[in-house]
Design a protein that fits this description.
Blueprint lengths: L10 H23 L16 H27 L4 H23 L1 H10 L7 H5 L19 H12 L1 H6 L3 H15 L7 H10 L13 H19 L3 H7 L1 H15 L9 H25 L10 H26 L6 H24 L18 H6 L1
Helix pairs in contact: 1-2, 1-13, 1-14, 1-15, 2-10, 2-13, 3-6, 9-10, 9-13, 11-13, 12-13, 14-15
Length: 382
C-alpha cells in the first residue's frame, strides 16, 4: 500500500489504488446503513445497499493486496533487501503503532458508548488504551488497520524469498513463470486460492492474526501472487491482449454469483474465488490498456492523489464513525443521512490528509516519506 514514488512509472496501479481507497470509503459509510454487524447502525437500514456491498466486500481488499504485492516488486528494483526492510518498518510498522494509539481509539470509544458499556468522557476512556489489553476485552486494537499489520508481516516473512529471487535459481524460476503466464496460466492462479478457501471454509474472519487462519493465508497468497506479477516482464502485455476474454468470463461469473443465493460446499467457495480473481485480472488488464494508449496522458492530479491514499486509508474509518455518530442526532431520512455522512466524511478525511502531507512531523506517522522540495531555480524553469 505504500507509495514513496516507487509507483510513479505505473500510473495504472496508482489509479487502481486511488479508486480502491475511494470505494473503501463508500463501503465503510454503507456499513452504518446496512444490517451487518458494525459499531452502530442507522435506525432505518438501506437494504438495497447489501448486494453491491457483498460484492465489494469480496473483491476490494484482495485487489489492494495484489497491488501491494506488486509494489514490493517494483520497490526492490530500486533498492537492496536491507534498505527495503528498513523502509517497510518506517512505512508500515510505525503508522500501525501510531494508528493503534491515536487513530483507532475513537472508534472503540464510540462503540463502547453506543453499546452502553461506557459513559465517561473520551479522556477517561483513553487512559484505558495504555493498559495494553487487546480488544475486545481491552481497548487496544488495530481494527481497520489489520491490512497494514498483515502486509508488514508478509513483507518481513518474504525477505528470504526476495533474496532468493536474485540468485541464479531465482531468476530461472522467474523466467519459467514469465513463459507460463504469457501462455495464459495466470488465469489459473485462482486454483491455489480456491483450494485455500475450500480447506478453510467456515473459519471466522476476525482480523486478529492469532485466530484468523483463512484471512491470513488467503491474503498471504494474494501478496505473493502480486509480487510475482510485479516481477514479470510479459504478463502485463498478456493481460492487455486477453482483456476481452477475461471480461467475458467475469460477466458470466457475476451472473452466476451475484444473485442472492448460496451454492453448496465447495461450489460456493470455488465460484467466489474465480469471481474475485477475474475481478483482479480485469482491473489490472483494463487499467494497463487504458494508460498505455498513446493518446492518453496521465492526469496531473493522480500522483498527488496516490500519495494521499495511504493516510486517507489510515484515517477514513475514524472520520466516518465520528460523523456518522454525530449525524445520527439530526432528524432526516436514511438516504439524505447517507449522502451527508458520505460527503462530509470524505471532505474532512481529504482535508486531514492534505494537512498531514504538509507537515514534516506528521508525514512519517502516516507512512509518507520526506517532502521533496523543488529548488527555486528548477521551479522557475518548470
Amino acid at each position: 500500500m505504500t507509495h514513496d514514488g516507487e509507483m510513479s512509472r505505473r500510473p495504472e496501479l496508482d489509479w487502481l489504488r486511488v479508486v480502491a481507497i475511494a470505494i473503501l470509503h463508500i463501503f465503510h459509510v454503507g456499513m452504518v446503513f446496512n444490517t451487518w454487524d458494525f459499531y452502530f447502525k442507522n435506525p432505518d437500514p438501506l437494504l438495497v445497499l447489501e448486494m453491491p456491498m457483498r460484492f465489494l466486500h469480496q473483491v476490494r481488499m484482495p485487489l489492494l493486496m495484489v497491488i501491494s504485492g506488486t509494489a514490493t516488486a517494483i520497490a526492490l528494483e530500486r533498492r537492496s533487501v536491507a534498505h527495503f526492510t528498513g523502509d517497510r518498518i518506517k512505512r508500515l510498522l510505525l503508522p500501525l503503532v501510531f494508528g493503534m494509539f491515536v487513530v483507532v481509539p475513537p472508534q472503540i470509544y464510540i462503540e463502547r458508548v453506543t453499546c452502553g458499556g461506557f459513559t465517561g468522557s473520551y479522556m477517561d476512556f483513553y487512559r484505558s488504551v495504555f493498559e495494553l489489553r487487546s480488544y475486545p476485552a481491552g481497548n487496544l486494537g488495530w481494527h481497520h488497520l489489520w491490512f497494514v499489520a498483515y502486509l508488514f508481516l508478509y513483507c518481513m516473512a518474504a525477505l528470504p524469498l526476495f533474496v532468493g529471487l536474485t540468485s541464479v535459481r531465482g531468476k530461472r524460476l522467474l523466467g519459467w513463470l514469465d513463459r507460463a503466464w504469457s501462455r495464459g496460466w495466470v488465469a489459473a492462479l485462482f486454483v491455489p486460492l480456491a483450494i485455500e478457501k475450500i480447506v478453510m471454509a467456515g473459519a471466522p474472519e476476525v482480523h486478529n492474526l492469532t485466530h484468523d487462519p483463512d484471512t491470513f493465508m488467503f491474503y498471504a497468497m494474494l501478496f505473493l501472487i502480486g509480487h510475482m506479477l510485479g516481477r514479470s516482464r510479459t504478463v502485463w502485455d498478456h493481460l492487455v491482449v486477453r482483456r476481452w476474454r477475461y471480461l467475458a468470463a467475469l460477466c458470466v461469473m457475476l451472473a452466476v454469483m451475484l444473485p442472492p443465493n448460496e451454492y453448496p460446499y465447495p461450489f460456493e467457495q470455488l465460484g467466489t474465488t474465480i469471481m474475485i480473481w477475474l475481478v483482479v485480472l480485469n482491473a489490472l488488464a483494463w487499467s494497463r490498456w487504458y494508460f498505455r494508449r498513446p493518446a492518453v496522458r496521465v492526469p496531473s492530479w493522480l500522483d498527488h492523489a496516490q500519495k494521499l491514499s495511504y493516510p486517507f486509508y489510515i484515517v477514513h474509518q475514524t472520520v466516518i464513525l465520528i460523523f456518522g455518530w454525530l449525524w445520527l442526532g439530526v432528524a432526516m431520512g436514511p438516504w439524505p443521512r447517507f449522502g451527508v455522512v458520505l460527503v462530509s466524511s470524505f471532505i474532512v478525511t481529504w482535508a486531514l490528509c492534505e494537512l498531514i502531507s504538509r507537515s514534516a512531523s506528521l508525514r512519517p506517522l502516516f507512512g509518507m516519506g520526506p517532502r521533496r522540495v523543488v529548488p527555486p531555480a528548477l521551479a522557475r524553469l518548470a
